[in-house]
Protein 1
Amino acid sequence: MLFKSGIGFIVLEMPCSFYERVLKKKEVNGLAAVHLEILKEDSRTRARLGKLHTPHGVIETPVFMPVGTQGTVKTITPEEIKEIGAGIILSNTYHLFLRPGHELIREAGGLHRFMNWDGAILTDSGGFQVFSLGDLRKIKESGVEFRSHIDGSLQFLSPEIATQVQMALGSDIVMAFDECAPYPCTHEYAKDSLERTTRWLKRCKETLTTTDTQALFGIVQGGMYEDLRRQSASEIIELDLPGYAIGGLSVGEPKDLMYEVLDYTVPLLPREKPRYLMGVGSPDALIEGVMRGVDMFDCVLPTRIARNGTAMTRYGKVIVRNAGSAHDFGPIDPSCDCYTCRNYSRAYIRHLIKAEEILGLRLMTIHNLRYLQTLMREIREAIKEDRLPEYRQKCFSDYGYEFD
Ligand SMILES: [Zn+2]
């Protein structure tokens, strides 16, 4: 039974019918499938500490999301992703649309069941990949025609199709089909592109009918132009979505320029909604992004460089495949608690990488992902204890000011 009070609905603890339970859930929460609970806001920076509630678990924020492009975080199992401490991963609409096809994943019961991952999943819309195809794609108002990178076949993605694909995948967070303008680009191009992105976003919103289990995030575009970022933010906020992403950054611009764009863009977004900075995962940019008020990040960087034999550590990058590691029988990072550092030496991992053994790639991936989970946990602790700027300073001096 529900009574309305001055501050919302109060639920009396008494047996209630199914209908009342449904009502209770809707009215008391009154929240989207995915929503952010803000636990603390930093007094000296724009950082926030929070909990992201999703249909597949609660995730502490700020958070880094490992990337599982093809429905797998390359080389490791979902059990290992969990052991690393990640509760949410990202997967790619473009790749899964082309192979194995979203209908097959729907038939399997959705992506969570297909890949045996019961944590949360965010799927990108495919826009970024499609626009990265350059000459192989053609932009129209209806959508984008492109050639598959797999077999060269002609394909088409639109706001409606990208959303329907993500509905079939059953991801917790559905990203809007947007156009990510290249860097550099003219003011005119960036303006046309962001206005199309807004029109496309409205079509994504109309298509998504599963808002009880899936949350659509809009994407702020506008290149490196402040007036356009303002225009984009104000247009998409009007649609009152469960979350907002900042796109079109980390596309080759200098980091200082990215921070400048964040400085004026993040404050335009509603305080109570999650904010996601797309494609950022270097340790320095994670810290700088958090300090500017970002809650969520993703990037292929840690897993990609792991497979090239480069480890991320709090003392800087370690190129394990280099000769310097050949006789080093200590761990990659003595301060790291990951499975790799607890059990294997640099010398052994270097041998595996040189010999092109798959285990080498697995061990490196586990380490790099754990490093970023540890970094994010320490960032959260620093926010909680009001010492984020000091923590930033320590990270930068430990790392040798050579983050990238
Ligand atoms: Zn480690």
Note: The longest helix spans residues 358-384.
Protein 2
Amino acid sequence: MIPARLIFDGKTKAYRICKLAHSYLRYMYAIPTISVSAINPLLYQKNKRMKIIKVLRSRLSKTRSYIATCKQKKELLQLLGDRHYFLAKEDDFLFSIRDLVEIFAGDLVARMYLVLEKIEDHITNGQCAICCNKGFICEYCSDSRVLYPFQVDHVIQCNKCSAAFHRKCYKEGSCPKCKRVEKRSNKNGDFSRNSNNNNNNNNNNNNNNNNNNKYYNDYNEMNYDDDEDNDEIDNKDGR
Ligand SMILES: [Zn+2]
Ligand SMILES: [Zn+2]
Ligand SMILES: [Zn+2]
């Protein structure tokens, strides 16, 4: 299997190569190092399965912060097998040669779809209070039905604050939560100017940083798990 033929033509045909290249590709087979969006982003448009897997991975990545704080994290991660990296953020979608082969010539798309359904069901079915309670109410229409960011068909997430809203309700640049946060920080800014005390501003910045760090840490924690799994992959890599 030649990676370039996979990435540019979507072809899984076997070619004759030298022993050294063969052993290198065997070693790399299950390690996610291929950024399709950096090398050939057109593949996502040209290839139907790649188009589907991109949406699938985007939805999976939005379940990451739920899995990270869930008591059943281990069981949920087990559903992904050795593909914990499928939870990475959209900008970081990496594929292994094995992924691409199993997408083009196998049933990886169908299998990952079942995994996604199970994870989404765990979060939304109400049996896990921690996950279930991390849903959102659309602040535009206040409909009582809870929204989750991975319901991408009808839900959109604010880039800045990560709050979720109905797609049909959301207006770019008018996020109610961001406006609230802005208003609050302006108020605190006035207070600190009046009292000649900048601590409040510093605290706010720290809080924001802490919130950002929370997601970053969640992700890092999972990356750590990934590293362990990658070791396992290296050891049992047989193709
Ligand atoms: Zn849960
Ligand atoms: Zn709404
Ligand atoms: Zn926002």
Note: The chain is about 60% helix and 5% strand.
Protein 3
Amino acid sequence: MTDYKSLFTGRSDAPQAPASHLTPPKYRLLLVDDEPGIVNALRRVFRQENYEIVTANSGQDGLARLAEGPVQLVISDFMMPGMNGAQFLREVKQRSPDTIRIMLTGHANTDAVMGAINEGAVYKFILKPWNDDDLRVTVALALEQFDLITRNRALKTENAQKAKEISALSKLAATHRSRLGIMLHKKNLLSSAQLQELTLLQERRSEPMIALLLEKDWVEERKIRKLLTSDLLIEEVQLPEFAIDPVLTEIIPRSFCSRQLVVPLKLQGKHLMIAMADPLDEGLVDEVRFTAGLDLQIVTADVAAIRKKIEEVYGSGSDVDFKELETLIASPDPYEGIEIVIEDDDGARLEDLLRETEAPPAIRLANAIIIEAIRLGASDIHIQPRTKSVVVRYRIDGVLIDKIQIPHQQHQSLVSRLKIMSELDISERRHPQDGRITVKTPMRMVDLRISTLPTINGEKVVMRILDRNSAVHSLANLGFSPVDLPRVTDMVARPQGIILATGPTGSGKTTTLYSLLQHDATPDKNYVTIEDPVEYYLDMAGQVLVREKIGLTFPSVLRALLRQDPDVILLGEIRDFETAEVAFHAALTGHLVYSTLHTNSAVATIARLFDLGLKPYVVASALEGIIAQRLVRQVCPKCREAVAADPALRRRLGGDYAGIQQTFRGRGCTDCHGTGYKGRVALYEVLTMDDELRDCIGSGASVLEIRRKVRGKGLRGIGQHGLEKVQAGVTTLDEILRVLGPQAGESS
Ligand SMILES: [Zn+2]
């Protein structure tokens, strides 16, 4: 059946949207297909949405619909008589470049479709038969993108306009001649020739007279300040004493301050106190008074002090600022976007999820933050509100770095967006929450673990990035010392028992365990992992995600799994007695168990197991070994150079480090983003059990006795492994100090 009416009006008799939609549709969608059945099926997909649907049965017809009124999104078939889908979408692009273009196609015609994609005629293609939910999500996200592009364009124009005004203002101000030169001339500190030269220079370079004067070095700055205070009674202030309200930075832009050498200090009612390097520049004073619309109280300070204060108040210029980020996120390539992978179990909330996403800039911002983090290889993203702005920090190779400043007004919508993505409650801002989400980027698929924490400045968000594609190192590549490697290999070869990796959060424990698990792994064994979150994906293992909220706790999952006859179990973490008890029980009943604990050293781990409530004989018989570890940053191999060891660092590290003469450092290059470090290596302490040690632990010896026994056996500590790595030029003394702390007075 052909809907003739729709051929002429683009509309059908069927109601476009349920009556519950009280607001008029915001988006007009054009569906083009020569088969009426497909058009109707597509229309059904969007029956819940508040879209105005227009249909057409050919490319020509579609163009006619487009001419009738703006269309935000078009979905077109490829194979159509007359104009095919690629040709049609190319036409659409030409006539209405902002319209989002989606092609629906069968598996055939790949080349034609790819051609259209490559030339930008197609935003996305969807294979027939489509999945209704996927299509709905795709369209909703695409429409957000449409809004975003439009808004960004407006924002860009606005920014450009502002920047123009400010730069015009700075130029204007600089053309007003300061009385400073004349005053210095009257005091016989400048000759007439010098004054004339200064005036000419100022006209040519449009820079403040004070800056030129100091550049010429004709009069000492100290002398100028003295004259200003004694003769003209202008107050000189000590800038470090002023705590500056961030709101002032919005009154006077940074570029103006830097250029004119002024800094706003205090605002009381209509009175602004401002420090000026040249308070005799009356033109400048007038301009500031005029732009700020405030009465000014002028004080003076050194040029250097003013520059320093500007840095402090407005932040250092090295960060990516918001404007740069705007350009970053305004890039028109839709393939830079990320897709949210919606997992099946919570399908019911899908529509809520889409309906709540009403702030598109936040979406693009969230995406840009995540993509940038992945590009830089960050492991964590912190979104931290501070008093003057919100800072986005990335943890790269274990070190947190401030990367992006975003304005406060973007904060709440950004946090809400991240919460929606991870299905958290957006209305709940006073209690911590945590959730997870899988995102697909053009680069890779990553799992994000997100947690929120209310702080006095607003909600702080921390995201942990878990790369689904990250490879597990082989045991030999983990970086164990030649002495430890065979001991670890032996430990892993045991058929049963428990092996623990210990260290603080982010010390690479799980990475180590996965390598151990994969070493000598054979298909005839049953491997399972129980984690929260799953950090690596292993085809050969059954992997279970712990979800405490729904009662899937470590011990409950472990108990259930033990009934499934596993051989090797990787248990994410032991943090309570119940988990410890089940894990050790499993280790005593024929399973090889790997797990982690948050302790600092091998012996401290044994003490911790006792504290948790395990019996000494259980620990003694089940435990096979403990690997305590830390991660240190690795010197960038591209820019590595030898330097003499810093005596102060040597002293603080003490012990074995005292004798070190030469160390290595990275000069900083493009490869390491100027940090001098690239990647990380682990420092290990490996404790393996023997009969003597088992007797000692099992007989209820004190931790002190155990420590003595272990030392007697020549356990090589983490510090010792660190020393080897420093000597080999792999890491630096600074890194050892950062990660292990001062070691002086401790024997290794
Ligand atoms: Zn480098």
Note: DSSP finds 29 helices and 24 strands in the chain.
Protein 4
Amino acid sequence: MLATKQGTSALYPFPQEDLTKAELLDMPRRIRVPAEQGDISPKIAEFLATHEDIPSPCLVVDVDIVEYNYTALQASLPQAAVYYAVKANPAPEILARLVSLGSSFDTASVPEIDMCLRAGATPDRLSYGNTIKKKADIEAAYQRGIRMFAFDSIAELEKIAEVAPNTRVYCRILVESEGAEWPLSRKFGCCPTMAAELLVKAKELGLEPYGISFHVGSQQTNLGQWDAALNRVATLFSQLAEKGIELSMVNIGGGFPSRYRVGVQPVAAYGQAVMTAMTKAFGDKIPHIIAEPGRSLVGDAGVIQAEVVLVSKKDEADEKRWVFLDIGKFSGLAETMDEAIKYRIISRHEGKDVGPVVLAGPTCDSADILYEKTDYDMPLDLVAGNKVLILSTGAYTTTYSAVGFNGFAPLASICI
Ligand SMILES: Cc1ncc(COP(=O)(O)O)c(C=O)c1O
């Protein structure tokens, strides 16, 4: 059986200090959560135990845990409107569940917009949050009823004004991302001075300058980063008010964590940090808040079951064995790039003694090594054919999977 604490008898609520809010008590009791957040949910454990025939590798997502995470985040940040970052995992079952819970959606492309509309979201619940869009795609989104767009440059703003007139726009600014395990620095956002000029320009172009967005980096472990970012945003609000532009929205992005190898604070601590920073920056004039969680809603809801393809050594004298799995960087585990995201990996084979390993994927690309510098141990008697479980893999895996490198199929996914 599974070599992990399964918590099959642990019924909601589980003992996490981030679940103290009264709102959580309204959560349906049908949701069974793991004994520890980020562990394998009882539903997934049962599914794996009773479905020997699923493809390998395969991501199994417990959609109830997505609901649980959504409710916990909403309870921790009651003043924020949640726009789920669809890129994290656009499985129709996840989108449909979030629609039913009242979530809105942050989309990055027309296909993502269509996925949300198909799942039952109305266009007023969608924002087009990518700052890099083709004009034709902005137009296609506008035709579908989308009325909120992100930008961070004059050229993008002019495209929006041309094909999506009179819509709400918000400007993304550059902020620090130190402390993030998956930083999003540099590529998106502009400096605050430019943001102020662009928001003035937005009004001249007939658009509605709605607010400011930022992203402190994904899997952000430094709760102080929202403080620094919100100070910057509040200064911009004041500067623009002096020019007659009253912004009304702050988009605090994502950055809330999943449970990987390094411990993280509970979601309630994040909610508290954000709201304390918000009050410090804006006093009693707190603007409309949008949060765009991706990883924190779906990461811990998923487990990948994979298979050992080969266990070998490069030299008999080596201490470390190489364990090659049937999943790698090109089949879903792209976030192991530079060993950034360190997944918890356990063997379904309960070997008594363990030893150090290098973990690698199955493809012909020598970059397809998951962990070489980070310490991982696996059972000494591990052999080809044994199953492994890669925990908290519900986010940024299926969508990062290549369509057929070396002929391997894209990562299979099952929502339960
Ligand atoms: C604009 C935007 N919003 C939200 C997210 C989701 O961030 P996270 O997964 O850290 O919650 C991302 C991630 O890339 C993003 O680019």
Note: The pocket of pyridoxal-5'-phosphate is lined by residues 85, 88, 106, 129, 184, 215, 218, 253-256, 292-296 (CB under 6 Å).
